[in-house]
Amino acid sequence: MAKTYAIIGLGRFGSSLLESLISAGQEVLAIDRDADVIEDYMDKATHAVIADSQDEEALRDLDLPSFDHVIVAIGHNQQASILTTVLLKDIGVKSVVAKAENNLHARILQKIGADQVVRPEYEMAKQLAERLVTPNILNYITLSDDYSLAEVKITNFKFVNKTISDLNIRSEFGLNVIAVKAHDEFIAAPESAYMIRIGDILTVIGESINVKKFENLVSGN
Q1: Angstrom distance (rounded) from CA 61 to CA 81
Q2: Phi, psi of 199 (to 5 degrees)
Q3: Cα Dmax for the chain
Q4: Interacting residues of 64 by C-beta distance below 8 A, sequence separation 6+
Q5: Distances (CA, A) of 102 to 49, 75, 78, 197
Q6: Where are the beta strands (DSSP E) in 12-136?
Q7: Is residue 60 within a helix (H) or strand (E), and if so which, with residue range?
Q8: How many CB atoms lie within 10 A of CB 210?
Q9: 3-state SS class at 57
């Protein structure tokens, strides 16, 4: 079932998010105070309107509390971002996701009530750094300060032709194997008797430090 989203600010982040949500079959209201920008998204968004997000009445007229999520994707204007977030919470929006430019901006957004704060550039840089430092980790998702989910490629022959049970991945590494990509095959929740082959990609979840230890061993580093 599609959810409803409103995106305020159609810069690089906001426009990319809009297109991704639309591609995923979601309903998206695009909001920006620049008429030329809105014109570009009239045919892409479910609805697109010209509005100043620092105008409380304009926000109320859009009935934003009825949306599942409202994303404040305003770019470098931190004052507008902060005021918009305050107004959205004041009018009763239940889920406000706000984009932050830096740590201080993020802390302010959290203190004024943003339900989720994201720093896209920082998070992308962190993921790229993880990939460069640990090349056998193909995808890495930080779930919390301590836990992560990662796709790890098996390139160490010491791990080949052994089952998940043989390797004691859960007891030895504190990780759960939740999926395996084996060439053209995808296996969700693989059985402990699954035989690992070279090139297999294991999706594991657990403490971040253990994910990295596991990656070092399966890559032979």
Answers
A1: 19
A2: 90, -10
A3: 65
A4: 6, 70, 88, 91, 93
A5: 28, 11, 10, 43
A6: 27-32, 47-50, 69-72, 96-99, 116-118
A7: helix 56-61
A8: 19
A9: helix
Lookup: tokens for 102? 């830096």
pTM: 0.66
Distance CA 55, CA 52 (A): 6
Q: Are 28 and 22 in contact (CB under 8 A)?
A: yes
User: 73 near 99, Cβ under 8 Å?
Assistant: yes
- From CA 29, how far away is CA 48, in angstroms rounded? 6
Question: Among candidates 116, 115, 59, 106, which has minimal Cα distance to 78?
Answer: 106
Question: Structure tokens of 97?
Answer: 């996701």
Residue 210: DSSP 8-state: H
Is 10 a residue whose pLDDT tops 90? Answer: yes
φ, ψ for residue 184 (rounded to 5)? Answer: -95, 5
Q: What is the pLDDT of residue 150?
A: 87
| Residues 6+ positions from 74 with CB-CB distance below 8 Å | 8, 9, 11, 14, 53, 80, 81, 84, 99
Q: What is the pLDDT of residues 61-109, one digit of tens each?
A: 999 999 999 999 997 899 999 999 999 999 999 999 999 999 999 999 9
Q: Is 203 left (phi over 0), alpha (psi -120 to 50) or beta?
A: beta
Tokens matching residue 148: 């992560």
pLDDT in tens, 123-165: 777 767 766 766 666 677 778 878 888 888 898 898 899 999 9
